Amino acid sequence: MQQPDVILIGAGIMSATLGVFLKELQPDISIEIFERLDQPALESSDAWNNAGTGHSAYCELNYTPIVNGQIDTTKAVHIAEQFQLSRQFWTYLIMNSKLPSPDNFIHSVPHMSFVWGDDNVDFLQKRHKALIKNPLFAAMQFSTEYDQLKTWMPLVMQDRNRDEKFAATYMPWGTDVNFGTLTRSLFKYLETLDGVTIHFNHEVQKIKQKKNSLWKLKINNGTKDDIVKRKTKTVFIGAGGGALLLLEKADCKEGEGYGGFPVSGQWLKCTNEAIIAQHQAKVYGKANVGSPPMSVPHLDTRIIDGKKELLFGPFAGFSTKFLKNGSYLDLIKSLEFANILPMLSAGWHNLPLTKYLVEQVMQSQEDRIEALKEYFPNGKLEDWELLEAGQRVQIIKKDEHEGGILEFGTEVITTTDGSLACLLGASPGASTAVAIMLQVLPKCFPDQMQSDAWRDKIKQMIPSYGQSLNENSVLCQAVIENTSKTLKLDM
């Protein structure tokens, strides 16, 4: 039985990022990657399956909640810091010819927040004042002036009443990222390296830790319809929505009690080139009262495979699948004695989410166009088509007080001995892949991460490693300028 040093499950942005990290830090490490589909990045990492927003909390209002009457910027700053780590990592790879031109996967697209009504305008203005105190948000602009808003987002302001109260923030540092193309480029680089083997059409059936601490895996080779067996010291599960089922197969105590709530997504895609050409921003709104964070509407400029696109959404739906290419039995298969109570409890405490999903499922195309008109008043049915987006699985976990809680972020679960790590959850996901791997590495490779060789190499790849950009304005500005130059982004 072959025994690579590390096995990565799933060929998405997470496994690609970890694989590159490991080969940069230890070139002689052996890695095998197993993907159930026939290509990398066909699920959540694919450009059409996610928003493509380089999540930096520039425009996502749910990252700045009101706490005790004040705007809390803690989460926004944290997410902005994380995306800067990704920018530095990509810059290093491009400068060392390990990634192709940044034009293939990242472009400058301003990030905007847009609101209307007295209370929302007041909130956005307070949010702007709170955020611009931080170096990571220093370039953010705010306006309530109709003409300025029309300059920033002409489609959004078309035929609106000048007497109504509107406001927007504008962040020139925003980006659109094609994580599908980026992921495929990372795997293309990995394939050139000694000690890396990538298997497509291979689905992991069993994961079990033996008494000698090694993990034994049984994998179905869909191409030859036979079973492949491997053993390894370290396993990383980066299988998107499929990660929960794999974690349950591993049967480790750290994964007990976790459940998943699957949510499907849809986009309206503009088919009118004249309309697409008039918009150049990601315009995020504010979720309705009682609606979940995933319901935040946005009108997005996208650059996909070199072509400018315009999407509006997302519209949510419900499916028992955990993956877009998954099984309708996924939700049922995920039920275990340890997670039934947390899942029932989370469902009871999230009835507004159930109501929201029912309403979304019942929508007609005409209903979706009406929602679009809040952001593009002249939107017409004939200019838009409906596309299926990716499948998300939100985390449900045990809670001492409520029995079970539903979470909307990501979480890394690691066994006590650091031999297995699993990533659960969704947004902000791909944008923070580098930051997530910097959490995984110390847990799975604690001794190596203490060595000067690994630490110096990480510092070479990510110059701000171990420091806070937000607390060092000079370093922050230098990092943004350097990465912007290499990634060909606006300042």
Characterise this structure:
It is built from 16 helices and 22 strands. With 491 residues, the protein is α+β, with helices and mostly antiparallel strands. The model has no long low-confidence stretch (mean pLDDT 93). The protein has a nine-stranded mixed sheet with strand order 7-8-6-16-17-18-15-19-20, sandwiched between helices. The chain has a six-stranded mixed sheet with strand order 10-2-1-14-22-21, sandwiched between helices. The protein has a three-stranded antiparallel sheet with strand order 11-12-13. Helix 1 runs parallel beside helix 6 and helix 2 crosses helix 16. It is globular, with a radius of gyration of 22 Å.
